[in-house]
């Protein structure tokens, strides 16, 4: 009797053991091809006659009593993840893409001596195999196919990792295809992400939003304070930027009369990578005419809570480490300046001088921000004093004017703008504005940003004349928001950003 379990797959494909296994499997591939006269068969047939899926059979027959015959014949395909060969009976576990499994029982009585021997000689762990036969429950109660016919659907040339050992994080990230084969959590995360996106679209549809698409290649970067990736168009012989945000194009759409728009898009920022940042990431942005930052905060809370319910069945979610986190109820809304003043033990206002802010930083060990301004100091100090103490989802309201060039000034508080950042699980998940719609003030803000850029601030915005021209045709009052899809998955699942992105960028 022989029994196979998936063996460790070294990082180097040409490790001696893997090299030997690959050579053996290549020989089996040659044999399979040689045994088939038609090009459609062999080790890689064009198709196999599948009639059912493994999940569907489990849903239909999963509660069979032990040692039960159904009389139902099914043809299924799956990846071999376990194999045990005895003299007259071979067992294999076939796994589908969602991780569900069914046992294949290949017996001498059912397939004959030649087919049984070929199974023993040709089938390896990792192969995709088609089997056809009666659906039964084994004497141990395991849902099985009593095989009468089988075929290789795709021959694997490299071995699988050990299914009973945890993959390292590095292997999970670099070889996500293996991660998806081996680990339930990896498959669940991919499906959760799809569920989240579907929920977001459903909520927007209920509020009569239109989904649109905007350019990824732009002649001028804007819509956020970030360092862009730069490329060159041979066709146009010009420098182009990968977008850092879709904001300025979405606002053009609103000028054109699309009063409620959203986009789920890819953004690119040429900055650092850590547990909450990736150079390439998915972003949701939405703009709604005739509302403000309070209205867009209400919408954002609804979007997130609906997504949590879609994935977890409740606004109370359980993270991968077992932590229970409550996304339900009405979320707190706190003032940035008031919360900073309370935590720092002294009043900080929009009128606090740069020297006073430097003094607070020096006394508490907070380093000066690059290209320091009043607003950058306030935000640095707020992160030092307040951010770590936020546990429940919290909207942090009313930001400094000089760090928010696209935001309307506060209607009643001088020196701040109507902007919020939403903090969940200790990180910024979303941001929202009462949008600036006065083209004259917007031009002034762009000029100030251009001065920062001239002084070496790579994150500062440039003057976007085409966007200003659109504004000059009349932009309606609106609220807007942006939210990282990867971070939304982090908030719901408790995972790090490299786990929520299917194929993250790695060195």
UniProtKB/TrEMBL annotation:
PROSITE patterns: AA_TRNA_LIGASE_II. It comes from the Bacteria. SUPFAM superfamilies: Class II aaRS and biotin synthetases (SSF55681), Nucleic acid-binding proteins (SSF50249). Pfam families: tRNA-synt_2, tRNA_anti-codon. InterPro entries: Aa-tRNA-synt_II, aa-tRNA-synth_II, aa-tRNA-synth_II/BPL/LPL, Lys-tRNA-ligase_II, Lys-tRNA-ligase_II_N, Lys-tRNA-synth_II_C, NA-bd_OB-fold, NA-bd_OB_tRNA. Binds 3 Mg(2+) ions per subunit. Gene3D superfamilies: Bira Bifunctional Protein, Domain 2 (3.30.930.10), Nucleic acid-binding proteins (2.40.50.140). Mg(2+) 2 binds at residue 428. CDD domains: LysRS_N (cd04322). Belongs to the class-II aminoacyl-tRNA synthetase family. This is Lysine--tRNA ligase. It comes from Microbacterium ginsengisoli.
């Amino acid at each position: 009797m022989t029994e196979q379990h998936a063996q460790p797959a070294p990082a180097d494909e040409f490790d001696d053991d893997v090299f030997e296994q690959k050579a053996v499997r290549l020989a089996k591939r040659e044999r399979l091809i040689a045994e088939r006269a038609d090009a459609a068969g062999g080790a890689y047939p064009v198709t196999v006659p599948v009639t059912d899926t493994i999940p569907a059979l489990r849903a239909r027959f999963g509660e069979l009593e032990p040692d039960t015959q159904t009389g139902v014949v099914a043809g299924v395909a799956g990846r071999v993840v376990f194999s045990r060969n005895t003299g007259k009976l071979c067992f294999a576990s076939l796994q589908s893409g969602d991780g569900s499994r069914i046992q294949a029982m290949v017996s001498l009585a059912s397939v004959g001596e030649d087919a049984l021997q070929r199974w023993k000689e040709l089938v390896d762990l990792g192969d995709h195999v088609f089997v056809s036969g009666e659906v039964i429950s084994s004497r141990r109660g395991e849902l099985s196919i009593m095989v009468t016919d089988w075929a290789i659907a795709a021959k694997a040339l490299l071995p699988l990792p050990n299914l009973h050992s945890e993959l390292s994080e590095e292997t999970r990230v670099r070889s996500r295809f293996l991660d998806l084969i081996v680990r339930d959590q990896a498959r669940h995360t991919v499906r959760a992400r799809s569920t989240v996106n579907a929920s977001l679209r459903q909520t927007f549809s209920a509020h009569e939003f239109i989904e649109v698409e905007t350019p990824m290649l732009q002649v001028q970067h804007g819509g956020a304070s970030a360092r862009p990736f730069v490329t060159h168009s041979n066709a146009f012989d010009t420098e182009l930027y990968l977008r850092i945000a879709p904001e300025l194009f979405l606002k053009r759409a609103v000028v054109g009369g699309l009063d409620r728009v959203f986009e789920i898009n890819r953004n690119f920022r040429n900055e650092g990578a850590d547990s909450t940042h990736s150079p390439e990431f998915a972003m949701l942005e939405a703009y709604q005419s005739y509302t403000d930052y309070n209205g867009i905060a209400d919408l954002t809370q609804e979007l997130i809570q609906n997504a949590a319910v879609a994935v977890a069945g409740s606004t109370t979610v359980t993270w991968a480490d077992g932590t229970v986190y409550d996304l339900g109820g009405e979320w707190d809304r706190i003032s940035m300046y008031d919360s900073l003043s309370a935590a720092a033990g002294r009043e900080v206002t929009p009128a606090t001088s740069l020297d006073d802010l430097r003094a607070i930083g020096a006394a508490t060990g907070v380093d000066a921000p690059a290209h320091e301004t009043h607003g950058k100091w306030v935000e640095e100090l707020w992160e030092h004093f307040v951010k770590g103490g936020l546990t429940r989802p919290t909207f942090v309201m009313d930001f400094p004017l000089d760090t928010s060039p696209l935001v309307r000034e506060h209607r009643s508080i001088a020196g701040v703008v109507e902007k919020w950042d939403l903090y969940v699980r200790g990180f910024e998940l979303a941001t929202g504005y009462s949008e600036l719609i006065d083209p004259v003030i917007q031009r002034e803000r762009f000029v100030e940003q251009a001065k920062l850029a001239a002084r070496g601030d790579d994150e500062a915005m440039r003057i976007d004349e085409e966007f200003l021209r659109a504004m000059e045709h009349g932009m309606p009052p609106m609220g807007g928001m942006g939210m990282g899809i990867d971070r939304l998955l982090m908030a719901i699942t408790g995972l790090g950003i490299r786990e929520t992105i299917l194929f993250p960028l790695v060195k």
